[in-house]
Write a structure and sequence with these properties.
2,3-Dihydroxybiphenyl 1,2-Dioxygenase, domain 1
Amino acid sequence: MEIKELGHLVLYVHDVARSSAFYRDVLGWHQISPEGLPVAAFSSGRTHHELLLIEVGADAAPLPGGRHVGLYHFGLKIGDTDEDLRTALAALHSAGVRIAGAADHTVSHSLYIFDPDGNEIELYIDVAGIDWANNPESVLAPTRPLAL
């Protein structure tokens, strides 16, 4: 077996309407499912769906705090330059999105945010001119602060 690509991500959410508004209206993902269902599907156009949200209700257990086993975050490429990240940061501030931080990972520059249910999301750009394919150590380079 060989993995060809990451196909999709499925998240349980407290309120699918609230989370759909975040992923659609704040992050700009195209919602492909009709509204009013207890699920919502989104696609960037690359495949039939890349994100599926499933409503589990307000009484579902929240994500555990601190270090725990399971999903840490997922990454979404949002552009090609730091200017794309600056534009995103301004939009996120305007939308009242909780920002976790920013990082220079050598191969990428990243913003970290939280969705309405506390799932951490990395919004990133790949840094031009970094030949990670021929220098795989660069992928694990120490993380440095990123000032936008």
